[in-house]
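Lecture notes, structural biology module. Today: joint structure prediction for complexes of four components.
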Amino acid sequence: MEVRLLEVPDPVLPGPHGVIVTVERTAICGSDLHLYHDAPTGLGIRLGHEAIGTVAEAGASVRTLSVGDRVLVSGVIGCGLCAPCVAGQPNLCRAGQSAAFGTMADLPGGQAEAMAVPFADAFALPIPDGVTDEEAVLLTDILPTGYAGAERAAIRPGSTVVVVGLGPVGIMALQCAKLYGPARILAVDMVPERLARAERLGAEPIDARIAPGSQQVLEATSGWGADSVIEAVGADATVLDALSCASTGGTVSVVGVNLAMALPFPMGLVFLKSLTVRAIFAPVPGTWSALVPLVQAGKFSLAETFTHHMGLSQVAEAYQLFDSRADGVLKVLLDPKA
Amino acid sequence: MEVRLLEVPDPVLPGPHGVIVTVERTAICGSDLHLYHDAPTGLGIRLGHEAIGTVAEAGASVRTLSVGDRVLVSGVIGCGLCAPCVAGQPNLCRAGQSAAFGTMADLPGGQAEAMAVPFADAFALPIPDGVTDEEAVLLTDILPTGYAGAERAAIRPGSTVVVVGLGPVGIMALQCAKLYGPARILAVDMVPERLARAERLGAEPIDARIAPGSQQVLEATSGWGADSVIEAVGADATVLDALSCASTGGTVSVVGVNLAMALPFPMGLVFLKSLTVRAIFAPVPGTWSALVPLVQAGKFSLAETFTHHMGLSQVAEAYQLFDSRADGVLKVLLDPKA
Amino acid sequence: MEVRLLEVPDPVLPGPHGVIVTVERTAICGSDLHLYHDAPTGLGIRLGHEAIGTVAEAGASVRTLSVGDRVLVSGVIGCGLCAPCVAGQPNLCRAGQSAAFGTMADLPGGQAEAMAVPFADAFALPIPDGVTDEEAVLLTDILPTGYAGAERAAIRPGSTVVVVGLGPVGIMALQCAKLYGPARILAVDMVPERLARAERLGAEPIDARIAPGSQQVLEATSGWGADSVIEAVGADATVLDALSCASTGGTVSVVGVNLAMALPFPMGLVFLKSLTVRAIFAPVPGTWSALVPLVQAGKFSLAETFTHHMGLSQVAEAYQLFDSRADGVLKVLLDPKA
Amino acid sequence: MEVRLLEVPDPVLPGPHGVIVTVERTAICGSDLHLYHDAPTGLGIRLGHEAIGTVAEAGASVRTLSVGDRVLVSGVIGCGLCAPCVAGQPNLCRAGQSAAFGTMADLPGGQAEAMAVPFADAFALPIPDGVTDEEAVLLTDILPTGYAGAERAAIRPGSTVVVVGLGPVGIMALQCAKLYGPARILAVDMVPERLARAERLGAEPIDARIAPGSQQVLEATSGWGADSVIEAVGADATVLDALSCASTGGTVSVVGVNLAMALPFPMGLVFLKSLTVRAIFAPVPGTWSALVPLVQAGKFSLAETFTHHMGLSQVAEAYQLFDSRADGVLKVLLDPKA
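The predicted structure, tokenised, for the full assembly:
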């Protein structure tokens, strides 16, 4: 689709449990590129599921937020009423209403001056003390996504972990993998700068331009493979290569968005190696109780995540730049006022 | 391959940690049918990985077994020395030597008068008091396999479980699923007698001749699907249907043997539903500490598993009969002396 | 304290997130006897934390309940706003406001014609289809309590479990223990009828009038003890005896209410046997997603729990009767209209 | 007891599965001080359960070790035959034979020139590449003990952890706690140097000379307490203070040796706060698969653990020094040849 900045009507309060947020910072996510590349123009989708701002209006039934509160908004929401939704897992919404903001016409996103947030007690959080605005934006989606991927990768103290793909989500996943005490993290990518960043974070870089990542992982592990593999790209080839990285008894946790319905899958390998393969649509709010104190304690290196700061008026260029994955480009932060 | 009874040399003691077992009862497993159908004749494979008998000879270093002990033999073995092997998980053998008896020429199986068992402290168990011979045979492979499948299916109290395939392994898996407190078990097959057996065991039968299992599972669960699905067939179609049975957040545990290397896999479904998919090559000895007290306490209905008792001299007919999956045929027990 | 029926003012709506429930059935809990025996008369406590009824009035912000809905009310509540409270674990309330209805003057209980329920979306549930009124009353406290005790007892398939105390909570715990696949349940009490009830439920009765429960448990387990012990009395002596029942590596889960601050505790035993000891104040609403489908599927034997049905007008006699623990008395159901 | 160096007969091979190890380095453990203070002289106990050396003689049935191999020896052993023993958990020995070397007359310890190790395949490990001798000594007991304590403390990403006692085991526990991703570690002791060491390792020091540790922990956590508490002293007062440090829903994991049989225990607190309390006798060999790769990867700061190197001939002085807990004294390494 073509990305354009348009004048649209102001959002209206989505019922008594919702709020309107004046957006102050928003970001482009790798998953936005799926729409950018594959969706037709004209669907009326207002993009964006990573946003922070100030509550401008609050429904009468909202309990935990007030007008004037600065909040971060979960990129993923659900019905807001079922047990998983209220417990922070809208990805498991029992009403089947899991969705990311900005992915369909009737759920306008946060790359905007304002956004409507339904059931805000469940899906928005006052920005906690000691959390910067950039960190708050990361808490709306990609840090929770990386965390969910690491959490489901069955990493134990002493494990060997592989992270396939060192874009923004991969870098979050890599840092979250460290929370589980691995002995080694092998980090696979093709962009030198991304490999260097991973190495600074304590990982062993594997340059997939030289040979397939899985081949190098097997060499680095005496042929045994890795206990835990986190896939953070979503391409068919990287998902399949991730499976080949896993050791007998290992787990492959896919956080890259792959929507293939007929991926040529090595079930025989999964059987003979007793593997576990899983993917996840991020349970954003449910991760905050773990992630917020870690961010506050400075346990992550997040400062260099946003390599570019631009105005929302430059959104078309921002998408082009982000999509280039050029050296020096990791993630773009947008200011709706600029 | 053609199955024939041949006169072969007696097995020799496989080192000081091994034993020779005079086989008293042995059985045909569904996984033997893979070889029966697909392997060429002439490989010299001596079939069988389900056997019990008496220790006829014991190596000098064997600690827990003596000549004269009646034992059951793990269908799956490994190097016998690594940490997983000694802890009962030869499927995770660090030396990469996981194998089932009777699947290759140099590991002769138990459909024979005698068999050699290496590292017998790890891979054989004196038949415990209160365990019948038929139950002991089931403990060599299919009850552990069904148990491993259920254990890895993430069944919790109140869950809805689907078992796809009600052959011998499926019936074991169904009974093991009950150990985890599900509210409902939906049991899918096409053979009326098998469906009736599942119903007697407390499951809700789903006849896949009427409509695809997954379609009926969704209808029976208001469109939500099942928390846990155990696939116990191994065909491409049943593995794929099992994936369609799973609810958002669900787990699909495959114990049917599927060796496809390019199964057309719905990765998009796995992502959007946050699924976990896993398979396992059975960790036989590691399951005995749980399964033996349950068998002793009569917690399983195992008596009707062996529908046919035949002599090893009739082995060719026995394979034909077992392969027919005819009504009235569930599993065949063989007596090497008859 | 003395228990009397008094005329009191009608409850008022506890804020916009609360409801008023007209009570239709209520029950006396073993924990009420702590107050009955130990609290002075005159505190103004309105007893009762097990009640069901109909929503008579609902605050404007209530989302999941309407006037006229028949509901069951969690016996335990909290602030209603923190993450544990909204996720069904008011026992872990971050605001430190965990409390049971009817245990203090400013949280009037359910042994009444009507009760106020704050934050009703979190703490009340429409009575699900297929759940009888008696079952609904059990879901307000003692079935969740028994379940929580079993859940935290680390029961695994094949385990040996001991339940100490076969009063109402013990009988619930015993049935919940079965959800985890134990091979054996040893049930300890001194009342013949209670022992007989446990035996009908599949347990091995141990009559503690003959010898201490732990002594008989050790005899029944070849001196090894039980993997999991659930204490459902709360007396000092039974808590200590429960610790003596545990095997090396075992877990003792205390659901009996014991408020001792200097129990003479065998720490040396806990160390040498690598034990885990835990207690829990019941996380009622968080258990419903598991327990409701189990009740609907008829997995529990609950029909004979209420041995006596009386009118609220007979509440003083009801307490006396329940407190007697006489043969034939297990639990008393009260009708506020009679 | 009085500690003296005596000439004793050489050890003899403890059966065909055992080895004789020529001891090269050995250490004094805090738990040795229990005997030092409390056991009468004349029991004939040969002390020591932390030793490394070279295999001088190997029984015929030993599979994984050869004469000349340099090995580290598990401080804790069991029968060597049961399932927990072969799986690395001699603390859970089914034969009830869990014991530490050097704690009774018939299991002579490693503060000697040589020691007999029964069932050496289970209880000794060739010193892995990249592991120094000092690290190997730490792997015989206190690093596994600290790890077991942390593993059982239910630490999750974002947790707040307290470590009570910063002696050698406490320092190991503190470093192992970091493997589970806590946001904060509060470290309690009374010795300035020990507090400074903890701070260098990333913890927040709490000086218990100023006020009780629990009081300061509550202040540092807004009154809420810590999710996980590891007690590494073993005194009655510190165990009780550790309980007071725990938040609602928290876990207290005791690794300090406390053999009290009537500790005045706040069961009411455990109930009202839904706490878990556990202790453990270390499962040494079972921890090696996690700890060895972590040591090899340099994930621990172990170099400054041994503050003193002495000859075994100075053993009496070494005990006095170690017992002093003076500033500058953390742990003593002994050389049997000096």
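Point to remember: The mean pLDDT of chain C is 96.
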